[in-house]
Structure prediction request, 247 residues.
Amino acid sequence: MRSVAIYSLKGGVGKTSLSLNLAWAAATLSARRTLLWDLDAQAAATFLAGARPRSGAGEAQGLFAREIAPDKLVVPTQTARLDLLPADRSLRSLDRFFFTLGKKKRLEKLLQMLAHGYDRVLLDCPPGLSETSEQVLRAADLIVVPVIPSPLSRRALDEVVAHLGRSSGRRGAILPVFNMVDRRRAMHRSAIEAAPDWPVIPMASAVEAMAVHHDAVGSFAPGAPAADAVARLWRAVERRLIAAESS
Prediction:
């Protein structure tokens, strides 16, 4: 099993839609047994996936307290081979819980518990540098960072890179991705020209429609440019993960 965190220091960069689209690609294009783990108390990935928690609200944090096994909360989605570990309001206090718990590898241990059932786990992470993000950055094999082509978003990426450079211990590789790109804007074109090797996901009405369909773009709009861009990005992610498996 390999884990991929979709993470950004900054909010509003399309992190959650990218998480669901990549999870769908893992399950559908690569036929991987895939889990999308919603770690954000806003539960946006849970909403987009259209899956309802099997248990009542308030149990998501119970996973980290070892009060409930992960497979007790996992629910299927409408996509074959794609399950969801949903979020709920209890995750609002997850940072405080991690700080009090004092165990730096609790998320990594939970991922190991899921390894027998899945080939790929994608983590939709809350924004910001926090105790939760520290657990994610320490546990993930690859960190996909969506970046809007703007100075503020690029600055947020630079801060993450600098933070990881100052930190000790195991850290996953970073894969920055230009997201919500509008090539009609000079600033966006200039940013892409400055980093031509970064994957690019366009701004698209199909991505916005995910909230209506409760599904990934590749499912309800397979011919859309955004679906093609996600497929290319997922192939790049898979190449990295396979290389890590064989190293």
About this structure: The CA atoms of residues 16 and 45 lie 6 Å apart. The chain has one domain: 2-246.
